Amino acid sequence: xxxxxxSPSNKVTEKGKDVELRCDPISGHTALYWYRQRLGQGLxxxxxxxxxxxxxxxxxxxxxxxxxxTGESVSTLTIQxxxxxxxxxYLCASNNRGSTYEQYFGPxxxxxVT
Amino acid sequence: DAKTTQPPSMDCAEGRAANLPCNHSTxxxxxxxxxxxxxxxxxxxYIIHGLKNNETNEMASLIIxxxxxxxxxxxxxxxxxxxxxxxxxxxxxxxxxxxxxxxxGTKLSVIP
Lengths: 114, 112
Known about the structure:
The structure holds two protein chains of two kinds. By secondary structure, chain A is mainly beta. Chain A is built from no helices and ten strands. Chain A starts with a strand and ends with a strand. The model of chain A has no long low-confidence stretch (mean pLDDT 92). Chain B is mostly beta strands. In chain B, 0% of the residues lie in helices and 46% in strands. Chain B is built from no helices and nine strands. In chain B, the strands form two sheets. A five-stranded mixed β-sheet of chain B has the order 1-9-8-3-4, with no helix packed on it. Chain B has a four-stranded antiparallel β-sheet with strand order 2-7-6-5, with no helix packed on it. The N and C termini of chain B lie far apart (37 Å). The relative contact order of chain B is 0.35. Chain A binds chain B through residues 4, 31, 33, 35, 42-43, 45, 48, 59, 91, 93, 98-108, and chain B through 32, 34, 42-46, 49, 89, 91, 93-104.
């Protein structure tokens, strides 16, 4: 079946602009995760949605970052007033239970802030 | 979560078995051993996990020593598409446990 999809695949933006990244999880998956991966670095957890529960936002690096998810479908990650240090690959993952590490990742969105 | 140690890089001839070791000597009784890989420019991919017993799925086999201090991921017939960075992680299961954190992993190069 279809995997996790993300759009756009690449985004180049000027410093100070807002960007919106989209994630379509696998159908039926209740849990959705956003991570950031800087070049040559490991995963950095950003935010976690599980069903209708309040999201875990503990990984968001600043108040410029926010994310929304409607029900168990699409999620959007918004970065306001982008900075050069926001340049990274933003990865989305989903699974059908929250407390499990078997996460299925999308291809990521490569964000470049110039 | 347990600290894991992996060799930084390995080569494997195409068609041969790739055996990727991982040391996790501080792993606790309720921590699982998980393996992921990341092919260049792609998102991470779950491979397999285990607690005590050896596990096998369509992608790989996981051999865990009896004392659980180390494990080996086996790709039985490596192909060029298996070239990736492989991550071994010790993770505690339970409510609220879901954040993945990777170390440096092993860069596996499958050679034609």
